Amino acid sequence: MSLNVIDLIKGQLGPALVSQAASQFGESESGISKAIGGLLPAVVGGLANNADKPGVVDAITQASSSGILGNLLGSSSSNPIISNLLSSIFGDKVSALVNSIASFSGVSNTSAGSLLNLVTGATVGTVGKYAADNNLGASGISSLLNDQKGIISSLLPAGLSLASFGLGAENWFGQAKETVASVTSTAKDNIAEGVATARENVSEGAREVRERFENNNNNNQGGGSIWKWLLPLLLLIAAAYFLWKQCEKKQTTTTTTTTSDSAAMGSTADTAATTGTTTPAPATAKTDEDIELNGVMLKGYKGGMEDQMITFLKSGGYKNAADDSALKDKWYDFDHVNFKMGSSTELEAGSQGQLDNLVAILKAFPEAKIKVGGYTDKTGNEASNVKLSKARAEFIKAALAKAGVGAQVIAADGYGSQFAKVDAKASDAERAADRKMSIRFAK
Fold first, then answer.
1. Which residues contact 128 (CB under 8 A, 6 or more apart)?
2. 268: Cβ–Cβ under 8 A, 6 or more apart, which residues?
3. What angle do CA 89, 64, 23 make, to 5 degrees?
């Protein structure tokens, strides 16, 4: 199965970046998330449709060494690689794309334009990094992008289509139209063949009925044998049944072929949009609020990690815990701390603020001790997952030590996918719940 590059790119567009973008552009997090969800398949589709253009491949190669992934919000809007690339793949359709996304997501046109640059930067940066890490040359990059054509239309959120961007599907994926015509032609041939075969069998059956009827008449001139009418009736029933089964068989075969070919081309987007099974419902937006810590205000979610920890510590829950066994079952998940995809040493933008909050909490309650835990989803090699999650937990532990609270962090463990709950075959968005960093109090 070919690599889905959209799953790779999503690692650069996590909750922390969405939150930071919402704050910078003055939009809701749900609007930003919705816009990104529409832009990502559109941008990847644009690259896939232009995969054989030297300029597209050159832009991806340059992006891998430009450092664009390190500052998506800061450098994407003014990066000439991105502006030239958008002009190359969308031409005069850029404005239509921006307008459609703005209308779909509820953000302003200005924000939608900035997000288009951001998503394009994340896309070319991620693909460029993957290509560099895997020693892909120009032909390898083109092949990787071409492999995405079959999945793009099915990944567009409900309410969006290539046509809504002013981009006809037949222009992007020209072979789709041809394939559908071929399948339709084959289906018609199959049906015609089945009907012809059935007619021949019925004719043959009718001939036999006639012959048998005539023979019976000749042999039973003076009698009223029951076979004079029963045998023809049975043969007619058998012929009718055979005709019905032949037509049913051909029709079933034709329907199955057409459906499977359509699915292979990713043309099930309309069905997915109707049933709502492809695109998850957007999560309820959360907004940072003031969380009071001994007269100091920390920014965090109401009911989030900071709020829960401070409430527990102020209630005397930690002080009154008899031993570690009384604390080990309650973990606090980070709301904003996320690592870049595949990395154990690089945090996503917006992560540092919550680490600073944790440092402030530990300094306010110096008797409190904690453990750090790292977790992954169920995909990939488990040994590698454990190693990665352990390295990430150690990174958090080292960062806290550097901030002056190292004595309060007594352990850092990686659990890989041991506690993951979402099936490996689920969507990336669903599996994201299992990829997390957490802490618990310890003694």
1. 60, 61, 62, 63, 64, 65
2. 154, 262
3. 75
DSSP state of 281: P
Distance CA 119, CA 40 (A): 6
**pLDDT band (50, 70, 90) for residue 265:** very low
Residue 23 DSSP SS3: helix
* φ and ψ at residue 148, rounded to 5 degrees: -85, -15
- Do residues 103 and 24 make contact, with C-beta atoms less than 8 angstroms apart? no
Read off the tokens for 94.
């850029």
The DSSP annotation for 327-364 comes to TTT--EE-SS--BPTT-SS-BPTT-HHHHHHHHHHHHH
User: Would you call 70 helix, strand, or coil by DSSP?
Assistant: helix
Contact 262, 271 (CB under 8 A): no
Closest by CA to 32, choosing from 12, 10, 17, 44, is 17
User: Can you tell me whether residue 27 is helix, strand or coil?
Assistant: coil
**For all residues of the chain together, what is the average pLDDT?**
77
Angle at 85 between CA 83 and CA 87, to 5 degrees: 70
Q: Residues for the chain: how many in total?
A: 443
220-258 pLDDT, tens per residue?
A: 554 455 665 666 777 778 777 776 666 555 444 444 333
Residue 169 corresponds to which tokens in the numbers above? 């599907």
**pLDDT tens profile 352-366:** 999 999 999 999 999
Q: Are 442 and 370 in contact (CB under 8 A)?
A: yes
The secondary structure of residue 420, as a DSSP letter, is -
Note the helical H segments in 365-427.
382-400
pTM for the structure as a whole: 0.42
Which has the closest alpha carbon to 120: 70, 172, 77? 77
Q: How far is 41 from 29, CA to CA, in rounded Å?
A: 19
C-alpha 326/C-alpha 404 separation (Å) is 27
Residues 6+ apart with CB under 8 A from 110: 25
Query: Residue 392 and residue 339: Cα distance in Å, rounded?
Result: 8
Q: Provide the Cα torsion 388, 394, 397, 399; round to 10°.
A: -80
